[in-house]
Write a structure and sequence with these properties.
The protein is an alpha+beta fold and 96 residues long. It has helices at 2-11, 13-17, 86-95; strands at 42-47, 53-56, 59-61, 63-69, 74-80.
């Protein structure tokens, strides 16, 4: 009988699409606090693992640097290479 039930479930489309959640319920969403000063809250992240792309002559990028300033609502995307150093990152940040 268990074989028949498994076979039925595998063939029945609704059983394949409906999944039972087996995790704890999510908590309430919290509102982010309002930033008090500029540059107090910067969110910096990298998107890596992208295929190499030529952005200028002899300059290749394979990542994207994302900078978000919540105070002035600035969002910046910058093409970079994953081997960028801290000094180069600061120079790019100050330049842009």
């Amino acid at each position: 009988m268990s074989k028949e039930v498994k076979h039925y479930i595998l063939r029945y489309n609704t059983c394949q699409r409906v999944q039972i959640s087996r995790h704890r319920p999510y908590s309430k969403l919290l509102v982010l606090p309002i930033p008090q000063r500029p540059i107090l809250e910067l969110i910096i992240d990298f998107i890596i693992g992208l295929p190499p792309t030529k952005i200028r002559i002899e300059e290749v990028a394979n990542a994207i640097l994302v900078i978000i300033n919540r105070y002035i609502k600035f969002l910046g995307y910058f093409a970079v290479i994953t081997t960028i150093t801290a000094v180069e990152l600061v120079n790019l940040f100050l330049k842009q």
